Amino acid sequence: MERRVDLVVVELTGAYAIVAGTGGELLRPDDIVSGQRPVDDAGWAAERLRQPPDATEFLALLLGLPALNAGTRAGLDWLPIESELGVTLPGDYKTFIEAYGAGVIDDHINVCAPNAGHDWADLRYTNSPPR
User: Fold this and answer.
1) CA-to-CA distance for 84 and 128, rounded, in angstroms?
2) Same-domain pairing of 88 and 103
3) Rounded distance, CA 21 to CA 7, Å?
4) What is the pLDDT of residue 74?
5) How many distinct structural domains can be found in the chain?
6) How far apart are CA 67 and CA 86, in angstroms?
7) Do 94 and 126 have their domain in common?
8) If both were cysteines, with which of 21, 26, 64, 126 could 7 make a disulfide (CB 3.0 to 4.6 Å apart)?
9) Most confident of the following: 7-11, 25-29, 54-58, 109-113
10) How far apart (Å, rounded) are the C-alpha atoms in residues 76 and 62?
11) 95 and 77 in one domain?
């Protein structure tokens, strides 16, 4: 079985590598990937990796989410949750949550939201003192 992997290294340090592309899920832990190919700056990698002026748009682009659409936002009332938590939440976080809601990114990062359906994703629950 042929495994097609098309990855571009976005950032490389001594501790980690960040890659973008397709087929990464086909790699096994013991696979060694090597090689190079020229990347057309006008191609998908350049478009996917350009940083939009808005942090929410940039995160959505990196995650491959649909473009933000003001008409689909939930329009949450943030004042009660901010009062309860004692903080003013960042505008880009609120925009992201209103557009996409709570979830998990790459099985590693929990994105919490007010009134989420599960304790692990509920902003109030995860920021409450231990019970």
Assistant:
1) 10
2) yes
3) 4
4) 63
5) 2
6) 31
7) yes
8) 21
9) 109-113
10) 24
11) yes
Q: How far apart are CA 44 and CA 21, in angstroms?
A: 9
Domain that holds residue 64: 52-131
Q: Does one domain contain both 82 and 21?
A: no
79 contacts: CB under 8 Å, gap ≥ 6: none
Judged against a pLDDT cut of 70, whether residue 65 lies above it is answered with yes
Pair of tokens at residue 55: 């942090």
What is the number of H-type helices and E-type strands within the chain? 5, 4
Helix crossing, 55-63 with 91-100: angle to 10°?
40
**Does the CA dihedral 37-41-43-45 come out positive or negative?**
positive
**Beta-carbon neighbour count of residue 70 at 10 Å?**
9
- Which of 50, 65, 86 is the last residue in one of the domains? 50
Question: What is the C-alpha to C-alpha distance for residues 54 and 85, in angstroms, rounded to an integer?
Answer: 25
Q: Which two tokens stand for residue 98?
A: 């209103």
